[in-house]
Amino acid sequence: MSRDSRYDILFEPVKIGPVTARNRFYQVPHCNGMGRTHPTAMAVMRGVKAEGGWAVLCTEQCDIHPTTETSREIRLWDERDIPTLARMTDLVHEHGSLAGVELTHMGYHASNLTSREVPMAPSAKPVLGINPVHARAMDKTDIADYRRWHRNAALNAKKAGFDIICVYAGHDLSIAMHFLSPRHNQRTDEYGGSMENRARLLREVIEDTKEAVGDTMGVVVRLAVDELLGDKGVLAEREGKEVIEMLGELPDLWDVNCSDWDNDSITSRFAEEGFQEPYIKFVKELTSKPVVGVGRYTSPDRMVSLIKKGVLDMIGAARPSIADPFLPKKIEEGRIEDIRECIGCNICVASDNLGVPMRCTQNPTKGEEWRKGWHPERIASKDTDDRILVVGAGPAGLEAARALGQRGYDVMLAEAGTELGGRSARESRLPGLSAWGRVRDWRVGQIQNMPNVEIFMDSRLDADQVRETGCSLVATATGATWRRDGGGRYHEFPMPGAVDNAQRVLTPDDIMDGATVDGPVIVFDDDHYYLGGVIAEKLAADGHDVTLVTTGAYVSTWTQYTLELGRIQARMHEAGIEVLANHAVTEVGDGSVTIKPIFGGQAFERACGHAVLVTAPLANDMLYHDLMADEAALKDAGIRRVTRIGDGLAPGTIAAAVYSGHRFARDLGEPLGDAIPFNRELVELTETFAMP
Ligand code: ADP
Ligand code: SF4
Question: Which of 273, 345, 368, 433 for a ligand 2 pocket mutation test, highest count of atoms within 8 Å of Cβ?
């Protein structure tokens, strides 16, 4: 297939100072939880994206000195860090792409718990977060030191083979941005006060970088033009505009976005594709240099329109490049329908925040490119004669059937219901989650083109029927069901009254099935991810009087990792939902519940029509156990292995279910045994050491 000529414009080269990007696809810096602790995994992950057609591949933030330190991101503290990063630049160059490095000094954002160096900032202040650490105000020596460290890091980056230096002034994560910001910079010297003074350090660092490496490397500025904090933060019409007016022609390219990270990587629950456009569209009017911006762009038509309208010169992407490393190549080859669109769930972000290699809901190979040798597009052709039955067409079953089909296996996919997608279909009908339907859409779209994958709808299989299929391998992807008895984390045994007053109890499954709800409603969330909050939101939107009781300190506490926590609290407030955090529902009565503060205090009663218990799902593994109960019958039926996958093995995220389905397609459920199922990057011991 060849590409649609409408998209030709996306494949025009773009000059970034002395270097040239081969097309307009620019993977902006993004964290990945691999960094310097899993450097080969990080390098291969970027290399795969270069293969997939991204013209520019940037690193995540790269700390330039021990006074700015995170535990997991990459470093260029000195020359010894060069070989780790050179591995990435080599792989990126193999595919004709450019490698960029985002040089970072996080200032008051870094607590420096490992290096134990005192953080520094334009003005003295507590570090971001709650660590009992304070940043000191930088004096002139500190400013000179910072400039020198940045210059040295740029020179080392050149030695590591990078083509582009990103001077970082974004995400409230960089000293250069802290100086721009009126709330961080309360100085009275020539680096504080007027905009010209506050931009002085950024100007100096750009000039230093240009002077050091600008003859051979592109110098990019990554600038947060708006913090969405109103008057007290950086504002597009104030700092954003004035900085570009002053420094517009200095760098070779502007990479602009909204800060902080929770605004830049806002989830689909809270914003549509392209939400940053109104904030950044002024930039191109003020500079002749190319401009990059992001917005979870996955539609090539939208990309073309951004370029034609003069909003952007290059399409920036982090999450769309994670969900589909081959997005540019698919557009280039005229395979638009093959693009695996990001769903905007931020599971990738959560991995990084948890300090573990990034995973992705849509792309189960993410983070496994080197560890397991999983390529996002290629998979080994079938190497057995198995005919394979997949029972259940949720995220796990669909992914298993799709990837097995790609391998060339004959697959039967049986689904009990009348729609495909399992929970990805059901949950996508809840408020804010419509983009999650893309998990189903992409897989169904792929399977429909596979003559070797047969789908049977409305087919709830029992053990006899499974044995009659004539398949030699079976995967049960039968999902999970939310508990009705209130058991979970807080109630390790069923909650008193939940079974006896079952007529007063509903579960998330009931709500998604359209159960009649009697108010007032108590939602008890002991699960802590999104669903409790989303169910409460739905019930409030349906006109119910809703109280959300949670054993967490916040509604949906785990969403601190997906950057949604603040917006979820605000949404509860806007929806008029009463929140009782640090409380548990301890008993369900007939028309009321008992609620108790979990850290002590008096229990009290609340009247309710229904209590919705969002405590824990349990795997639907009956079919699996029925099959395994009669090994002789399995053997007679020619079934050599039955494997549970996805939520039917143990409930988790949709990302985990997709991963589980993919893994089955790769290993056909081969038991783990004693083998370690992935490559490990081992720590190299220092050759000599002395005892103190
Ligand atoms: P997962 O996230 O693990 O994919 P889901 O709950 O989303 O799990 O999907 C499970 C799917 O399996 C549902 O669509 C459900 O209707 C289907 N299913 C459950 N039991 C059977 C069965 N015995 N036969 C066929 N399909 C089943
Ligand atoms: Fe997109 Fe979710 Fe994948 Fe992140 S994890 S890239 S948000 S689909």
Answer: 345
pLDDT single digits (tens) 152-207: 999 999 999 999 999 999 999 899 999 999 999 999 999 999 999 999 999 999 99
What six digits make up the tokens of 643?
A: 């494997």
171 is catalytic: yes
Cβ of 286 below 6 Å from ligand 2:
no
| Comparison of pLDDT for 172 and 139, the residue scoring more | 139
Q: How far is the CA of 400 from the centre of ligand 2 (A)?
A: 19
pLDDT of 519 over the 90 cut: no
> Nearest Cα to 254, choosing from 240, 274, 264?
240
Catalytic residue (one of 264, 352, 525, 527): 264
Interacting residues of 39 by C-beta distance below 8 A, sequence separation 6+: 74, 84, 85, 87, 88, 681
Task: Name the residue among 588, 584, 583 with its Cα closest to residue 496.
Answer: 588
Question: Tokens 């029972």 sit at which residue?
Answer: 391
Q: What global pTM score does this model have?
A: 0.97
Question: How far is it, in rounded angstroms, from Cα 181 to Cα 222?
Answer: 15
Pairing of strands 410-414, 387-391: parallel
- Whether the predicted pLDDT of 37 surpasses 90: no
Task: Report the distance separating Cα 133 and Cα 351, nearest Å.
Answer: 25
Query: Which residues are CB-contacts of 449 (< 8 A; sequence separation ≥ 6)?
Result: none
Tokens of 472: 């030699």
From the list 178, 218, 216, the residue with the least C-alpha distance to 198 is: 178
Tell me whether strands 473-476 and 387-391 are parallel, antiparallel or unpaired. parallel
| Contact 322 CB / ligand 2 (< 6 Å) | yes
What is the number of helices (H) and of strands (E) in the chain?
23, 29
Which amino acid, one-letter code, is at 316? G
Distance CA 604, CA 669 (A): 50
| Residue pair 686/428 in contact by the 8 Å Cβ criterion | no
Per-residue pLDDT, 689: 92
Would residue 490 show up in a list of annotated catalytic residues for this protein?
no
Strand pairing report for 98-104 and 56-63: parallel
The three-state DSSP-derived secondary structure of 515-568 is: CCCCCCEEEEECCCCHHHHHHHHHHHHCCCCEEEEECCCCCCHHHHCCCCHHHH
Tell me, yes or no, if 674 is annotated catalytic.
Answer: no
Span from the CA of 450 to the centroid of ligand 1 (angstroms): 21
Q: Which pair of structure tokens corresponds to residue 209?
A: 């970088």
**261-313 residue pLDDT tens:** 999 999 999 999 999 999 999 999 999 999 999 999 999 999 999 999 999 99
In whole angstroms, what is the distance from residue 466 CA to residue 474 CA? Answer: 8
Residue 31 annotated as catalytic? yes
361 CB within 6 A, ligand 2:
yes
Q: What is the dihedral of CA 458, 461, 462, 465, to 10 degrees?
A: 120
Q: Which helix (H) or strand (E) holds 222?
A: strand 218-226
Give the pair of three-digit tokens for residue 24.
């307009």
Structure tokens at 486: 């209130």
Dihedral, CA of residue 164, residue 166, residue 167 and residue 170, to nearest 10: 170
Query: Rounded distance, CA 246 to CA 223, Å?
Result: 13
- Domains, the chain, in order of start with CATH, read 5-354 (3.20.20.70), 387-479+620-667 (3.40.50.720), 484-617 (3.50.50.60)
Q: From ligand 1's centre to the CA of 426, what distance in Å?
A: 12
| pLDDT for res 616 | 98
Q: Whose CA is nearest to atom 24 of ligand 1?
A: 460
The position carrying tokens 């529902």 is 585
